[in-house]
Amino acid sequence: MQRKLGARGHAAGEVSAVLDRLAAENLQSDVRYTEIYLRSRAERGYGPQRIAIELRQRGASVEIIQQALNETECDWLVLARKADRKKFGDTQDGNFAVLVKRRRYLEYRGFSSDQIKAALKPEHESY
Q1: In contact, 85 and 28? CB cutoff 8 Å
Q2: Interval 15-69: pLDDT, tens
Q3: CA angle 38, 115, 77 (to 5 degrees)
Q4: What mean pLDDT do residues 83-108 have?
Q5: How far is 126 from 17, CA to CA, in rounded Å?
Q6: Reported confidence tier of residue 108, pLDDT bands at 50, 70, 90
Q7: For the chain, what are the domain ranges?
Q8: 76-120 is classed in which CATH architecture?
Q9: Cα gap 83→91, rounded to integer Å
Q10: Which of 88, 100, 90, 83 is nearest to 46 (CA)?
Q11: Are 51 and 42 in contact (CB under 8 A)?
């Protein structure tokens, strides 16, 4: 918020004072923003790695991001599978080129290699 208001021409000292007052009154919370952003992006099919990068770019601290990721109830494997199925359908094509394309897509979406490996396994195999 400080960065955005500064870019719009507001004095840094004034912005800082207002944000401190809002935080003291619990009207602005980096923790709450991080949790809401994480939930919103996860619902849109993004993985934890990409969400963490986006939050860092938005000024959230590493500690708050890590805490939010640890406390979230997201099942990243289920989300990775849903993202894959939405993009590529239910086909379990064994074609190597298609598999590479699916893997690259899930990496772009921010899922870890373990999550991708489990998500791309056929449904009848256990993980």
Answers
A1: no
A2: 777 777 766 766 667 888 999 999 999 999 999 999 999 999 988 899 999 999 9
A3: 65
A4: 88
A5: 54
A6: very high
A7: 2-71, 76-120
A8: Orthogonal Bundle (1.10)
A9: 14
A10: 83
A11: yes
